[in-house]
Amino acid sequence: MRIASYLLPDGTRSYGLVREDRIVDSGSQLRAEFADLRALLSAGATKRLETADGGEMGQGEVRLLPPVTNPDKIICIGLNYMSHIQETGRDKPEYPSVFTRYPSTLVGHGQPIVRPKVSDHFDFEGELAVVIGKSGRWIPKEEAMNHVAGYTCLNDGSIRDYQRHTTQFWAGKNFDRSGATGPWLVTTDDIPDPTALSLETRLNGEVMQQTKLSDLAFSIPELIAYLSIVTELLPGDVIATGTPSGVGAFRNPKVFMKAGDRIEVEISCIGILANDVIDEN
């Protein structure tokens, strides 16, 4: 099942099922009960979309938003592909490297991401994002996948010079509209084994990153178990699982995004997250 969040032509926020190039809207009656996808996930009611009566429309008739527009938490993992760890000259860390992003930093598929006026070191990071569907604390690794609602693509757009101002990543990861996620959530019944997926990031059509998800240093169950020790994971929470090798900062010469570029993150069985780059006004 593919579920998208979007703005209807009249500006109403909604969500619905994606079927090929069409969207079946949830409808006002279902939205009155579950205002958004996070609420639907919290109630374990995604199957209700199969009988939604909100009407059908083309994808081009709506403005796609991040699949979960209001997550309680966006938790990002750094240095989580063996190829990327080797690229940076480091050893595999003993524990996951964790930082956070704010919802205001992410836009949906087809919306522009913004290079801030203070930097020309705007880098791309294609990632698989895990969306939590069932809350939990102290989740055993063996039960972790039971807490996953599904998966989506994420571009963890990074302002590299600000990222390196201190040992904390926060500044470089939280510029408004610097990253993106989408185009939709694909539920676990369509992706029984995320490690079988492949990821590719393209800048203006040129492949920058390419990997199998099996290269993750810390697996999805390990991440969920570790993070749930620290905080209760809630339905709609997003875990960005890290980026593979090939980022612009470690290329020779370096490659950074600029206005007019188009960046695409494609993950098999999910789809393509595509965004144009613009300069901050």
TrEMBL record:
InterPro entries, alphabetized: FAH, Fumarylacetoacetase-like_C, Fumarylacetoacetase_C_sf
Keyword Protein transport applies: no
GO terms, biological process: small molecule metabolic process
Entry's Gene Ontology molecular function annotations: catalytic activity; metal ion binding
Fumarylacetoacetase-like C-terminal domain segment(s): 73-277
UniProt name for this protein: 5-oxopent-3-ene-1,2,5-tricarboxylate decarboxylase
Source organism: Aquibium oceanicum
UniProt lineage: Bacteria, Pseudomonadati, Pseudomonadota, Alphaproteobacteria, Hyphomicrobiales
SUPFAM superfamilies hit by this protein: FAH (SSF56529)
Keywords, in A-Z order: Metal-binding
Protein family per UniProt: Belongs to the FAH family.
Domain of life: Bacteria
